[in-house]
Amino acid sequence: MVVEIEGVPLHLAHPDEIAVNWVGQEETMRQLLAAWLVVGPGDLPMSPRLIGKPGVGKTTLAYAAAKRLGREVYIMQATVDTRPEDLIIQPVIEGASKLRYVASPLLTAMIRGGVAILDEGNRMSEKSWASLAPLLDTRRYVESVVAGIKVHAHPDFRLVTTMNDDASTFDLPEYIHSRLQPQILIDFPERDEEYQILKENLPFGEERILQYVTDFLQQAHAADERYTVRDGINIARFAMKLKSLAASRAEETQALQTAIIETLGDEALRYLPRL
């Protein structure tokens, strides 16, 4: 799709379509949806940030919340190499002496009134965040130096940023930190919720394997280990593949332990539940 803004044709990104379902932690979902509400004239939606360990479902929550609103969703992965123009408009050479201007997923969401998920936002540099500062306050616009235009956000546009609480990230500058509010924390799920997440992602999974992996994760959580349900999904999936080649119950047990070792390393064996 192509739209024209201030005489400049912009080629828009396509929305993301992912088969996901948010399971449990409805209070966290409620907080995110509340942040996006507009409660009266003069009010504006907030731009929350979802914070938690890698693999706890931050992006899944953001996507599921957007779908509850019936909005298009645009996911943009932030990295240490993300430049300001990557966040807004990139010029692409098209034929001899001709440029095509391509809107980022974030800018496309602004134009179409969708939801933008800026994934792992604290991997971006301050220079990149600075280009979004006007979008995150009452001005609600971005400026493209490359295309020489200013783009205002659609009233239905919503933004959420996910952030990992690990050491491989940048500290946010204060003027950005104060704009990305509220801070919504996502913790490990309770046992029943964790089991349901595994079941949702592995509907073909055998009950015994799913229960075993759930117990393993719960013991790891109790020890404040950083293993997440994403790790559990990988363990269960690999164990089922190994088991398909097994001929005995003993080999099935070995398949589970092998899957844990090959996914997380030997140190994870300390959290093995009893069979």
Structure overview:
The protein has 275 residues and is of the alpha/beta class. The protein has 10 helices and 11 strands. Strands 4-7-10-3-11 form a 5-stranded parallel sheet. A hairpin with a 4-residue loop joins strand 8 and strand 9. Helix 7 crosses helix 8, helix 7 crosses helix 9 and helix 8 runs antiparallel to helix 9. The longest helix is centred in the last third of the chain and has 16 residues. The chain is elongated and about 70 Å long. The model has no long low-confidence stretch (mean pLDDT 91).
Summarize the structure.
With 275 residues, this protein is an alpha/beta fold.
Secondary structure: elements and pairs:
Layout (H helix, E strand, L loop, with lengths): L1 E4 L2 E4 L14 H11 L12 E4 L5 H11 L4 E5 L6 H4 L1 E5 L5 E5 L1 H8 L2 E5 L6 H5 L10 E4 L4 E4 L5 E7 L9 H4 L5 E3 L5 H11 L5 H16 L6 H15 L5 H16 L11
Parallel strand pairs: 2-6, 3-10, 3-11, 4-7, 7-10
Antiparallel strand pairs: 1-2, 5-6, 8-9
Name the structural class: alpha/beta
Give the low-confidence spans. Answer: none
Number of strands: 11
The portion of residues assigned to helices is: 25-40%
